[in-house]
Amino acid sequence: MSWSKLKQQLESFLSPALAGTVAYRATSYRYSPDKSGSGYLTVDQKNILNMADTTTPIRWYQTDQEIKNDPNIVIPVSMEEIEAIRKETKGAVPEERLEIMVRGRKSTSHAKELLSAQAALSKSNFTSVATMFLATSIEDNLESNDILLNILALIDRRVGKKRILNMSDSIKMKHSAVQYFYELRRRTV
Q1: Which InterPro entries match (predicted)?
Q2: What is the four-CA torsion angle of 8, 10, 11, 13, rounded to 10 degrees?
């Protein structure tokens, strides 16, 4: 599918409140076959998410510790998880340490997921992911681990006000780029 047709389809699904604010852009190199081009999203004509550039305003994580210590990422802990650690340690760990242990384990696995998603995003071809977005249900795109699929779904008109407001807890566990576009969309509903 040509870029102009793909862009037209993406724009047809863009939330009316974000029309004129969010734009899809792509570059390609006609005479350089080894460069597939780059795709990016702009907000108010500012390049916000460039799939090939690590210097965009969205924070790209460098280490596992940065992710684990980021105050913007909230890791929810349930009583069942605390109880599982209590059973695993056979009660040898003080009560106040159990929640810290659960949060530490969850943040490590979450950091690995974020780094994996980020690596996939930087290698991805914007047009192929956008085409996959159009062919997949909105629910699958929202639940996907792919950052770009999440973002495209969040700014989609098929995601209504009620769903956006109900997603606030699950978004806290997502990459900062997804959180940025969630906040952008939440402000417009």
Answers
A1: SF0329-like
A2: 130
